[in-house]
Design goal:
By secondary structure, the chain is mainly α. 69% of the residues lie in helices and 0% in strands. The chain is elongated. The relative contact order is 0.13.
Amino acid sequence: MTTSLSTDLWPDVQPDAARRLMLAGVESFARRGYHATTTRDIASGAGMSPAALYVHFPSKAALLFAISKSGHEQTLALVENVVASEGSPSERMRTLVRGFAAWHARRHTVARVVQYELGALPEQELAIVTALRRRIEQHVEQLIVDGVASGDFTVGNPRTAARAVLSLGVDVARWYSERNRQSPDALGDEYGELVLRMLGAAV
């Protein structure tokens, strides 16, 4: 199991067998892709029989949904905590980007599944995850709007800028690994400064 995964990803998931299946699902989806992964692969990775999966999740798609929904809820909570905190728009944006990029580096295996296997979700489950993604984007967009109003930022289209900010952080999960010499926190610091420059802030 890669060091980017641990049981603290899902502290509220019970019983332990369900959490083990989620961890095994992440490993299998990240390594093989969702469609190439079988329920036997997942159960084997969790040290269980193939039938054990259905005790906790009605389908492979339900397992993917649980993983994706949890990952998006975690990043939404991160963003909401930052935008609600004290500080100028520039200060909060730096903190937000630092945390967002570091999360995608530290949790790069689960983040790859969360961000890049969306197309495998059934329509109803995809709509739920899409709503979470939109809430994240709206918070970042509003922070940029506030920054433009205060003179912190100089961008013409806050929505496009918000998508660019989030895309930078999301893409970290695609290329980051434990072999990277830069720590997640150091990467987050660098991304924070890069985003402020992109938004026209004085840094």
